[in-house]
């Protein structure tokens, strides 16, 4: 994910040679070995899967909800018969997906969060304002599109979406402009929306396009990315066997904070006290992970120079301990 070139053209091959962000660091965490089983929870262009399969005589299960990724996976599967299996679904359903394949425990799980490079680089998917395209942003084929959200959501709720998922301070100004704009004509194109936002928000000193945070917010909301992440981390905890490794690469603070909090609690970090709950109820279960390093690892200067999309990447990693999984409900972590 996020490691491909920024060419506006689609890959000529169904399986483009693709180097995902922080690949060397993820491989170091997962330590692929012969006979082991790994999950590439965000298959995308198959970069992690291919690297794992090339590193050891192991098996990999790739999961993705994007039909285009599944088609790419079918081609890659033919190159690794019997070793790579690409499955359709959301990674939050990882445990159930693997169970249907007869897999109870695995030796490693990798997440490469957010939108993939093939999705960004395809104007028809509507993820990027760098090219004009349909205002879609759906990673799968179902649910509301970004156009549905901007054209039919009440102004205050729209402002909350842009603020909470985009961390955009000008959210209310942008929401008001969207509501005014859609009253004249429905917003159906990425270029339309980006130009509207640029008309009410100035470019920041760091050069970031004014539309960036709103597009991020809409994408996260449309795909329920944060809720899916909560479920995915809990699912990884369930399917990892003792000694299994978890590697999570995130690209913005909302994701990274979620991963950090999950691993802090699951590795025995003290829960934040809650004024709404008696202290006796704040005692968490036994730790299920051991942190492999404190804090997040950033990409090397060499990688960020070669691939600007890697600049915001953060890797967090942990090893599964032989202790029962916490509640299957990821919201239980908030009660801990």
N- to C-terminal distance: 32 Å
Total number of helices? 13
Based on the structure given, which CATH architecture of the largest domain is correct? 3-Layer(aba) Sandwich
The fraction of residues in strands falls at 5-15%
The CATH homologous superfamily of the largest domain is called: Vaccinia Virus protein VP39
Query: Given the helix and strand composition, which structural class is it?
Result: alpha/beta
SSE sequence, one letter per element? HEHEHEHEHHHHHHHEHEHE
User: Main sheet: which strands, in order across?
Assistant: 3-2-1-4-5-7-6
User: Would you state the CATH class of the largest domain?
Assistant: Alpha Beta
The CATH topology of the largest domain: Rossmann fold
Q: Any idea how many domains?
A: 2
Explain this structure to me?
Helix 3 (67-79) links the parallel strand 2 (59-64) and strand 3 (84-88). This protein has helices spanning 23-30, 47-55, 67-79, 94-100, 117-120, 146-152, 155-166, 171-184, 190-198, 212-222, 225-239, 253-266, 301-306; strands at 37-40, 59-64, 84-88, 106-112, 240-250, 289-291, 314-320. It is of the alpha/beta class. The protein is built from 13 helices and seven strands. Residues 1-16 and 332-336 have low confidence and may be disordered. The protein has a seven-stranded mixed sheet with strand order 3-2-1-4-5-7-6, sandwiched between helices. Helix 7 (155-166) packs across helix 10 (212-222). It is 38% helix and 13% strand. The radius of gyration is 20 Å and the shape is globular. The protein has two domains: 23-118 and 225-335, Vaccinia Virus protein VP39 (Rossmann fold); 141-222, Putative methyltransferase TM0872, insert domain (DNA polymerase, domain 1), CATH 1.10.150.170.
